[in-house]
Design brief:
Blueprint: H1 2-23, H2 25-61, E1 68-71, H3 75-79, H4 84-88, H5 95-104, E2 108-115, E3 123-124, E4 126-128, E5 131-132, E6 136-141, H6 145-149, E7 153-156, H7 161-165, E8 170-173, H8 175-181, E9 191-194, E10 197-205, E11 221-225, H9 226-233, E12 237-240, E13 243-246, E14 248-254, H10 260-274, E15 286-289, H11 290-333, H12 335-343, H13 348-385, H14 393-419, H15 423-428
Parallel strand pairs: 6-11, 8-10
Antiparallel strand pairs: 1-14, 1-15, 2-14, 3-6, 4-5, 4-9, 7-10, 8-11, 9-10, 12-13
Length: 430
């Protein structure tokens, strides 16, 4: 019997709260608006950041967990606070560095040098008969590009050591030029022109993982032997701020039975000897792994996420203050109603619950609308730009629950004020 009475009383309180919201449409709408903006910002930014985070992690992991990258400098050095000008003044990597690492580091199974990456890119159009592509990135590599960078081929093969040594005019096309020039034709064996030189197509790369989940030109490339690349293009260099940046990167993969730290130590030893560094001198090159790249991204994504959450929370805080202000006004306007209800037997906790429910209903509605709009913004950005989004089910529950909590917290003061009114004084209120 008591449970039935309580449920009936609760239902009555809910009904009164809903009726009050209906009667005060403008006020309720203004109250909801601030919450909508706050929750929309949180859900929208969270969906974009989570999508980017997941996609980039997949892209980084696709390179292979054992791959070691040797560069002039990397984002890890920049992230550590090193002076950019000092990093630019470091010596550039050369094909001889890659050859020395390959010869002297016995722990490594594969060593590859990539020209046209890690610096100013080499751009050229690819021509086939009357068709041509837009400007594409041209890479020069060894035959071990596949093994080092975990690259897959959709068709054909990669060039051989013999073709590299004799500077053969062979090319592996990325997906974009392959689809543009040969939409319905097998490209293998066809003759194309890269820049001002003719090449035979021997392979087509499989679709590359999207950095960030959207098309950033990751398939707009061609790969030729690095010896052929040097003959046609040289090694591009760009001078800036007293230094020089060359597009050279070295990649290496240790033997399966070799610990990666051993391989890292060997690479470092070879490079330090080649660069004639003394014991007390720091490395003038960077050696990084997948773990280092992921660690740096963790720092960047965490800082970005925190910043967006703080900004979004400010909007939600403003919305919460609006809830408290409007509910306080509502208590003042309904003082006689409260007095009447207290006079006919309503208890303080019933008055308290009525106003708390009104506030939480308002903010929960704002949470639902904000979650839907935030998700819609994320999906719109994805459809227009291809930018990745992640919309787990719990993000909606979190948005609604968070907004309802805001309603309870900011509605508590007006509710306590309403429940504390003296019935006699309330009835005298004009």
């Amino acid at each position: 019997m008591e449970n039935n009475l309580r449920s009936g009383l609760f239902g009555e309180i809910v009904s009164m709260a809903v009726n009050t919201i209906r009667e005060q449409k403008v006020r309720s709408g203004l109250t909801i608006l601030g919450i909508v903006i706050g929750i929309m910002s949180i859900v929208g930014s969270t969906s974009l950041i989570r999508g980017l985070d997941q996609s980039l992690r997949d892209s980084i992991r696709s390179m292979g967990s054992d791959t070691i990258f040797i560069t002039k400098f990397s984002f890890t050095s920049l992230g550590s606070g090193r002076d950019f000008i000092d990093l630019l003044r470091r010596p550039n990597l050369t094909p001889d560095d890659a050859a020395a690492i390959d010869e002297e580091a016995e722990s490594l199974a594969w060593v590859d040098i990539v020209l046209g990456q890690g610096g100013p890119p080499t751009m050229a159009r690819v021509y086939y008969r009357s068709e041509r592509t837009r400007q594409l990135t041209v890479f020069g590599s060894t035959p071990y590009y596949q093994q080092v960078f975990n690259a897959e081929l959709a068709a054909g093969r990669f060039f051989t050591l013999s073709e590299t040594q004799r500077r053969a005019a062979v090319v592996v096309l990325g997906q974009t030029p392959a689809q543009a020039l040969f939409p319905n034709v097998d490209p293998i064996g066809k003759r194309v022109r890269v820049g001002n030189r003719r090449y035979t197509v021997i392979g087509v790369a499989d679709e590359m993982p999207s950095p960030g989940g959207f098309n950033a030109g990751q398939d707009e490339f061609v790969v030729i032997p690095h010896t052929t690349y040097q003959k046609q293009f040289g090694i591009r260099a760009e001078r800036m701020m007293g230094g020089e940046m060359r597009a050279v990167m070295i990649g290496a993969v240790p033997h399966e039975d070799v610990d990666r730290d051993v391989a890292l130590a060997e690479i470092e030893r070879v490079m330090r000897i080649r660069h004639r560094l003394r014991l007390h001198e720091e490395n003038d090159f960077d050696v990084m792994t997948q773990d280092a790249i992921l660690g740096l991204w963790d720092q960047i994504s965490a800082a970005t996420f925190l910043t967006l959450i703080v900004v979004s929370s400010i909007a939600l805080l403003v919305g919460g203050i609006g809830v408290m202000a409007i509910m306080t006004i509502s208590v003042t306007e309904r003082t006689r109603e409260i007095g009447t209800r207290r006079a006919i037997g309503a208890k303080r906790r019933e008055i308290l619950w009525q106003f708390l429910l009104e506030a939480s209903f308002l903010t929960a509605i704002g949470g639902v609308l904000g979650s839907l709009l935030g998700s819609g913004i994320g999906l719109a950005v994805h459809n227009i730009t291809g930018f990745p989004v992640s919309l787990p089910w719990w993000s909606f529950a979190l948005g609604i629950g968070f907004s309802a909590t805001v309603g309870i917290l900011f509605g508590l003061f007006p509710a306590i004020r309403a429940s504390s009114l003296d019935p006699i004084e309330a009835l005298r209120h004009e």
